[in-house]
Structures are given as structure tokens and as C-alpha cells.
């Protein structure tokens, strides 16, 4: 089982952001807690369960053992991880 962080490529509010995803929700929430992220930061989305991380938090997640994945180099792996994240959506929220 693993926790993953993708490339910090999304520019928002002057910062670059990445996505924290995992094979299980327990692993995802545990890593987020270790990073000091509140549970309310959890993105329970149809597009995939995840947390948004700044570049700085991404680097810290990597130090804590998260696996770096690249949408440019690891396309098949990223697609597989996104499928897992989508399957973790609770179905309770309809917004994306």
C-alpha cells in the first residue's frame, strides 16, 4: 500500500499545488494528519479522493515516504492511481 503525490503543476493563488492520493482512505488520511492537514481539507470528489498540497507540503510528504508520480513520465501509473481515488469517492457530494 502506498501514498502518492503528483507533480506540483496547478497554479492557484500564486502557489503551485499537487494532489495527495493513496491506495486506501486510511493511508490518505493518516499521511494528511502527519502533514498537519485538517480533515476538512479532504477533497471527497467524483474526480478522485485527495488532498491538495502546496509544493512545500509535497516535499514534506516525500520525506515521510510518499511516492512521487509524474503525469508526464508515469502516465499509466497515474491513471491507475486516479482510478483508485475515484473509487474512494463517497458519492455523497455531487459537485466536482
What does this molecule look like?
With 96 residues, this protein is of the alpha+beta class. It contains 3 helices and 6 strands, in the order E-E-E-H-E-E-H-E-H. The mean pLDDT is 86.
Give the key terms.
96 residues; alpha+beta; 6-stranded mixed beta sheet; 3 helices; 6 strands
For the CA atoms, what is the radius of gyration? 12 Å
Shape: globular
Q: Please tally the β strands and state the result.
A: 6
Approximate helicity band: 25-40%
Q: Structural class from helices and strands?
A: alpha+beta
- List the uncertain runs: none
List the total number of helices: 3
Order of helices and strands: EEEHEEHEH
What kind of sheet is the major sheet? 6 strands, mixed
Layout of helices and strands:
Elements: E1 3-5, E2 10-12, E3 15-22, H1 25-34, E4 42-43, E5 50-54, H2 55-63, E6 67-68, H3 75-87
Summarize the structure.
The protein is an alpha+beta fold and 96 residues long. It is built from three helices and six strands. It has helices at residues 25-34, 55-63, 75-87, and strands spanning 3-5, 10-12, 15-22, 42-43, 50-54, 67-68.
Amino acid at each position: 500500500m502506498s501514498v502518492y503525490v503528483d507533480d506540483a503543476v496547478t497554479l492557484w493563488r500564486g502557489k503551485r499545488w499537487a494532489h495527495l492520493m493513496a491506495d486506501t482512505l486510511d493511508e490518505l488520511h493518516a499521511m494528511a494528519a502527519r502533514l498537519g492537514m485538517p480533515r476538512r481539507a479532504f477533497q471527497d470528489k467524483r474526480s478522485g479522493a485527495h488532498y491538495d498540497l502546496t509544493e512545500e507540503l509535497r516535499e514534506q510528504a516525500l520525506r515521510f515516504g510518499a511516492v512521487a508520480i509524474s503525469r508526464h513520465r508515469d502516465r499509466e501509473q497515474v491513471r491507475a492511481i486516479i482510478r483508485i481515488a475515484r473509487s474512494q469517492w463517497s458519492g455523497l457530494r455531487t459537485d466536482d
